[in-house]
C-alpha cells in the first residue's frame, strides 16, 4: 500500500511477540497409506455455520506435502498431561509413516481416516475445504465432519515458547 514501508523483522523478535498470545496445543493428523501427525498451536475456530476451523502449516514441514495430497485431516486438542505427545509430534527425529504412531495410543477416525490421539480433550475430523498460501505457511481450512469432547478443562497451553498445563 502506498506510503506504508515494509519493515524487516528478526524472526526471533517476532517469535517473542507472537509468544505473548497463549494458545492451546493440537496434533494435526492425516491418514491413508502413509499417515502423519504434527504438533500445531495455530489451530483456530473460524465459523459455526458452516462449521470451519483452520490450521497454519509451514511450507517446509512434511505435513505440508501430506496435506496437499489428502482430502481430510483430524485435529486432537491436547490435555495437560500430554506434554510428551506435543514434543514428540514436533520432533523431526520421530519415525515417518505408520511407525510414528506406535509411541502413542490412538484410534481410527472413521470420517477422516486419520488417527485420533487418545487421552486428548477433544477431536475434530475435517474435510479440506480451502487452502491459502500465506508467506512461509499455508492456511488450511477444514470443514468439520465430526467432533468428540470429553468433560474437563485440563488443557495443555503454549505461552512464551513453553508448554504448560493450564492452572
Ligand atoms: C507447541 C508447538 C506448536 C507448533 N505449531 C506449529 C504450527 O502451528 N504450524 C507449523 O507448521 N508448525 C508448528 N510447530 C512445529 C512443528 O510441530 C514441527 O516443525 C514438526 O516437526 C513438523 O513436522 P513435519 O515436518 O514432520 O510435518 C509447532 C511446534 C510446537 C512445539
Description:
The chain is mainly β and 167 residues long. The protein is built from three helices and twelve strands. It has helices spanning 11-18, 62-68, 83-88, and strands at residues 23-24, 26-30, 36-40, 44-47, 52-58, 72-77, 106-108, 115-117, 122-134, 137-149, 156-159, 162-165. Strands 3-2-6-9-10-5-4 form a seven-stranded antiparallel beta sheet. Strands 1-11-12 form a three-stranded antiparallel beta sheet, with no helix packed on it. A hairpin with a 4-residue loop joins β4 and β5. The chain is globular, with a radius of gyration of 16 Å. Bound molecules: flavin mononucleotide. Residues 25, 38-42, 56-58, 61-63, 86, 90, 92, 158 line the site of flavin mononucleotide (FMN).
Taken in chain order, the helices and strands follow as HEEEEEHEHEEEEEE
Sheet with the most strands, sense and barrel status: 7 strands, antiparallel
Q: What global shape is seen?
A: globular
The averaged pLDDT comes out at: 96
Proportion of residues in extended strands: 35-45%
Tally of domains: 1
What is the count of DSSP helices, taking H or I runs of 4+ residues?
3
Number of beta strands: 12
Structural class, from helix and strand content? mainly beta
Helix content: 10-25%
| CATH top-level class | Mainly Beta
> Which blocks of ≥5 consecutive residues have pLDDT under 50?
none
Spatial arrangement of strands, main beta sheet: 3-2-6-9-10-5-4
